């Protein structure tokens, strides 16, 4: 079976559109439509519903998608590995990094890696840990930083960094007089939070559920400077990683009671070929990590 129609089929399934799939694959839409019709004819099955501009998979299409994704991923892995056996001198690393780490932890590491390996292209995708984990599992990323406790069976991980989530407040907030902040006290305040899907928010939501509290979220934003500014002006309190707080931020941090520690790791798919470029990046990041227990 020609792999190209399966690649087109997977793209249509992910985008729910022949047009978007063609754009993603950089091919003409008629070529995509013809390939899918031929695939359906070869299999003797209807794989895609085409009605009222809505594109969806039939039950047979959904069954094929499970196998098609594995076949396409395995083919890409095989081509990559064969290319490296031929002495491929260049490569690409597609890595997902949550915004807090992308802004405050990874920049010097990424620049140092680029300096050591100038022929390797770095493609950094920023997003929430849940979104990045899904992209990793779907083969859209090669590596991703995730919260270690959420590791599914299909991924492997290597410890990267251990950081404390600290209550973040304005300098004149009453919490400044305390050494530690209980979850109950924290949830009595108006909060400035990341949006859902980010590990910052997932940890807070999990903590609220554990103590049977409903968070009072006054502001939702993924912009760390804005979180800091709102907190500085006393319009709410937040919780950020220690690395994010700088000397000139005019903010105070306190530990939760008990303290909350996050174990962050860099993950990859177990059943996928990890290229030389990705292995080099993984080794480099691990050497420069600061994981401590």
Automatic annotation (TrEMBL):
SUPFAM superfamilies: Periplasmic binding protein-like II, Winged helix' DNA-binding domain. The keyword Endoplasmic reticulum does not apply. Keywords: DNA-binding, Transcription, Transcription regulation. It holds the Pfam family HTH_1. InterPro entries: HTH-type_LysR_regulators (IPR050950), LysR_HTH_N (IPR000847), LysR_subst-bd (IPR005119), WH-like_DNA-bd_sf (IPR036388), WH_DNA-bd_sf (IPR036390). This is LysR family transcriptional regulator. Residues 1-58 form the HTH lysR-type domain. Belongs to the LysR transcriptional regulatory family.
